[in-house]
Amino acid sequence: MLNQNDLQAIRAIMQEEIAESEKRINDRIDTRIAETEKQINDKIDTRIAETEKRINDKIDTRIAETEKRINDKIDTKIAESENLLLEEMDRVQMFLESKINTVKGNLEELRQYYKITKLENDNTAILLKMIEELSRRIEELEKKSA
User: Fold this and answer.
1) At CA 107, angle to CA 101 and CA 110, rounded to 5?
2) Distance (Å, whole) CA 12 – CA 25
3) pLDDT digits (tens, 9 = 90+) for 51-75
């Protein structure tokens, strides 16, 4: 059998071996944990990057689609506005042409009235001259017969 000193020596060796074994196990665990942590972080980074790319692609696609829809609506509204303006301009043009034609008709009437009035004035002037000439001749005849 073993004496007390042998048992203590065995106990010291066992404690030493156990401590070294624990240290090796802890080192391995730390190494494995660090490796696993790195792998997890790499996977997370990769997945986050992939997710960001998919999200950015979807956002870009949706923005492009939205821009196209907005541009199409703007084009449609501009075309509708142009048509409304052109229709209004046609309506105003027809209205103004009607008014211009009315003014032209009135102007022609005024010209005819002016010509008639001028002719009447000319005729009146001629008649006055004739009357004056007749009055002068009558006076001369009255003087000769008196």
Assistant:
1) 150
2) 19
3) 999 999 999 999 999 999 999 999 9
